[in-house]
Write a structure and sequence with these properties.
The protein is an alpha/beta fold. The protein contains 18 helices and 19 strands. A 5-stranded parallel sheet has the order 3-2-4-5-6, with helices on both faces. Helix 5 crosses helix 13, helix 8 runs antiparallel to helix 9 and helix 13 packs antiparallel against helix 14. The longest helix has 35 residues. InterPro entries: DDH_dom, DHH_sf, DHHA1_dom, RecJ, RecJ_OB, SSDNA_exonuclease_RecJ. Keywords: Exonuclease, Hydrolase, Nuclease. GO terms for molecular function: exonuclease activity.
C-alpha cells in the first residue's frame, strides 16, 4: 500500500480555528481538512440541525410533482410506487408508499424482478400498471434514462414522476416531473442525495402543503440513513444531517421491520457502519436471492409478530447469499489466475451459471484482491449482465461510456455500475474496456492508497480526543473516520497472531516514554515479523474503543505497518 499524508493546513489557520473553538491544534487541523474553517461551520458540523435542510421546492420540477400527486389524490386515482430492488430502491419505495398510505388508500408498490425484468423501469411493470388501473407511477432510484419506457407508459395514459439520483443522459424522459439533483438545469444546492433521499424531499414537499413540519416526517429518516450508508453516497452537507437524525431514529425509535432485525443481533447502539454491514445486506438479500418486495414488506410492516416472520425469512436469504458469493468469488479468482490476467489494468470475468444476485458483491471482492476496475458477467435471459466496481479515483461509468459501441444499456455511478450486452460482444467489450482503462487511468490508482489525516504521538491519544472524534460521526465518503500515523513504535513483547489460522495481529505498543496502548490489525497476521524483537516500526491506524467485560479502553485499529 502507498501512504499519502494529507497536506497540513497553514499553522496560522490551525491556530485561529483552535482558539475560536477552544480545541487543540490536532482537532482544528482535522476540521480544516474537511473544509470547516469557522466557528459557524463547526457548529453546523458538530450539531446538525433539521432546520438546515434545504427547501425541497428548490429542486427542479418539485412543484409539478407535488401538484400531480395532489391531483391524483383529489381524483381518486390509483398510484403505483415503483423502485429498484436494491437497498436504496426498496427503502425509497417503503418510505414513499407508507407516507402516502398514511392519508390516502389507493397506493400500491412494485419492485421489478431482478432476473425477469432487470434493473429499473420495465415494460412488464408498466403493463402491470395498465392492467390494474394505475394512472400515476412514482419511480424511485431509477427512471432518469428510461426514455422508451416512459413513452410507452404515456401511450397507455399513465403518467410518471421520476425521483432519481443517477446521472441523466442528454435527453430526459417525457415524465410529468423528473426530480434529480444531477440534472444540469437543476439548481438544488446539494446534488449527492441518494434515491431514497430524493424521495424524502418529495414527501417533505407534500407534507409542507398539508401543514406538516419536518418533525412530522422525521421518523422516515431511518430508511434514508440506511440508503445513504448502503449506496455509498457522500456523508456531507444535507446527507450528513439526514444520516445523523436517521441514526437517532434507528437507535431510539426504529420502525417495526428494523426492530425485528436489530433484536436478532447483540448490539446496543448502531453506527452507520453497523447499518451498512448488518441491516443493509439483509435488505439487499431479498432482491438478490428472492424478490425485493420481501424487503418492502418487512420495512412497511406494523405488526411485530409478522415482522419477525419476515425478518426470519430475510435472514435465511442473507445466509444463502453469503454462501453463494463465497463460492463464486473463489471461481472468479481462479478464472483470473488461469487466464493469467493478474497483471492487466482490469479484471473481467464471466460464467453463465453465476447467480446474478451476487455478482456485484463478487466484483467488490475481486477489486479488493487485485485492485483493478472490475466487471463480473453472468447470463441473464438472452443477454449477459454485469456488475462493475472501481478503484479509488477512477470513474468506471466514464470508462463504460468509452465502450458503448458494444453495450446494450448501462447506468450507475463513478464507482459502481451495471450493464447488459449481447453475448457475441463479450470479447470485443472486454478488450475495449481494458484498452480504455489502460489509456485513461493513472497507474498510481492501481496501488491501494491509505490517506493519512495527521502524524501524531501516542501520548496525544486520550479519552478526551476520543470523545471529540466520536462527534465527527457519522462517517462515510467525504467524512471518513480520521486516520493517523505514528512513527518509531515498539511492541512490548505482546505481539501475536490471533483468530482463525492466526490471521489477525494483536499487539501492545509504546513510543519512547509514552503510555502503552493496545492495537489490533485484522487480516494482518502476516506482518507479525515486522514488529517482533522490539524492532521499531511506523503504523497507520484509526482510534477505536475496545469493550471487554464491561471495561472500555482505547486501542489502535491498525491499517498498515512499515
Amino acid at each position: 500500500m502507498r501512504w499519502t499524508i494529507k497536506p497540513k493546513p497553514k499553522q496560522e489557520d490551525i491556530d485561529t480555528l483552535a482558539n475560536a473553538l477552544n480545541v487543540d491544534s490536532l482537532v482544528a487541523q482535522l476540521l480544516l481538512q474537511r473544509g470547516i474553517s469557522t466557528f459557524e461551520e463547526a457548529k453546523h458540523f458538530f450539531r446538525p440541525q433539521l432546520s438546515d435542510l434545504h427547501d425541497p421546492f428548490l429542486m427542479k420540477d418539485m412543484d409539478i410533482a407535488v401538484e400531480r400527486i395532489e391531483e391524483a389524490i383529489a381524483n381518486g386515482e390509483n398510484i403505483l410506487v415503483y423502485g429498484d430492488y436494491d437497498v436504496d430502491g426498496t427503502t425509497a419505495v417503503a418510505l414513499m408508499s407508507s407516507y402516502l398510505l398514511s392519508y390516502y388508500p389507493n397506493v400500491a408498490t412494485y419492485i421489478p424482478d431482478r432476473y425477469d425484468e432487470g434493473y429499473g423501469v420495465s415494460f412488464k411493470g408498466i403493463d402491470f400498471a395498465e392492467d390494474n388501473d394505475f394512472t400515476l407511477i412514482v419511480a424511485l432510484d431509477c427512471g432518469v434514462k428510461a426514455i422508451d419506457k416512459v413513452a410507452y407508459a404515456k401511450e397507455k395514459g399513465i403518467d410518471f414522476i421520476i425521483c432519481d439520483h443517477h446521472r441523466p443522459g442528454t435527453i430526459l424522459p417525457s415524465a410529468v416531473a423528473v426530480l434529480d439533483p444531477k440534472r444540469e438545469d437543476c439548481s438544488y444546492p446539494y446534488d449527492e442525495l441518494c434515491g431514497c433521499g430524493v424521495g424524502f424531499k418529495l414527501i417533505q414537499a407534500l407534507g409542507s402543503r398539508r401543514g406538516e413540519t419536518i418533525d412530522d416526517v422525521v421518523y422516515h429518516l431511518d430508511l434514508v440513513a440506511t440508503a445513504i450508508g448502503a449506496d455509498i453516497v457522500p456523508i456531507t452537507g444535507e446527507n450528513r444531517i439526514l444520516a445523523y437524525y436517521g441514526l437517532q431514529v434507528i437507535n431510539q425509535q426504529p420502525r417495526i421491520g428494523f426492530k425485528a432485525i436489530i433484536d436478532q443481533i447483540n448490539k446496543k447502539e448502531l453506527t452507520i457502519t453497523d447499518v451498512v454491514f448488518i441491516i443493509a445486506p439483509r435488505i439487499n438479500a431479498a432482491g438478490r436471492m428472492k424478490h425485493g418486495q420481501h424487503a418492502v414488506n418487512l420495512l412497511t410492516e406494523t405488526n411485530m409478530d409478522q415482522a419477525i416472520q419476515f425478518a426470519s425469512e430475510i435472514e435465511k436469504f442473507n445466509t444463502d447469499r453469503r454462501g453463494l458469493d463465497q463460492e463464486i468469488t473463489i471461481e472468479a479468482l481462479g478464472q483470473i489466475q488461469e487466464n493469467e490476467e493478474q497483471e492487466g489494468f482490469t479484471s473481467v470475468v464471466y460464467k453463465d451459471t453465476w447467480h446474478k444476485g451476487v455478482i456485484g458483491i463478487v466484483a467488490s471482492r475481486l477489486t479488493e484482491t487485485y485492485y483493478r476496475p472490475t466487471l463480473v458477467f453472468t447470463k441473464s435471459g438472452d443477454k449477459l449482465a454485469a456488475s462493475a466496481r472501481s478503484v479509488r479515483g477512477f470513474d468506471v461509468y466514464n470508462a463504460l461510456e468509452g465502450c458503448s459501441d458494444y453495450i446494450e444499456q448501462f447506468g450507475g455511478h463513478k464507482y459502481a455500475a451495471g450493464l447488459t450486452l449481447l453475448e457475441e460482444q463479450y470479447n470485443n467489450f472486454k478488450h475495449q474496456f481494458e484498452k480504455v482503462v489502460k489509456e485513461t487511468i493513472d497507474p498510481q490508482m492501481l496501488i491501494p492508497e491509505i490517506t493519512i489525516d495527521a502524524v501524531i504521538e501516542l501520548k496525544d491519544i486520550n479519552p478526551k480526543l476520543m470523545r471529540i472524534l466520536k462527534q465527527f460521526a457519522p462517517f462515510g465518503p467525504g467524512n471518513m473516520s480520521p486516520v493517523f500515523m505514528a512513527e518509531n513504535l515498539q511492541d512490548t513483547g505482546y505481539a501475536k497472531g490471533v483468530g482463525k489460522e492466526e490471521a489477525h495481529l494483536k499487539l501492545s505498543v509504546v513510543q519512547q516514554d509514552s503510555h502503552k496502548i493496545d492495537g489490533i490489525g485484522f487480516n494482518m497476521g502476516d506482518k507479525l515479523s515486522l514488529v517482533t524483537g522490539r524492532k521499531p516500526f511506523n503504523a497507520v491506524f484509526s482510534i477505536d474503543e475496545n469493550e471487554w467485560q464491561g471495561n472500555v479502553s482505547l486501542q489502535l485499529k491498525l491499517k498498515d505497518i512499515k
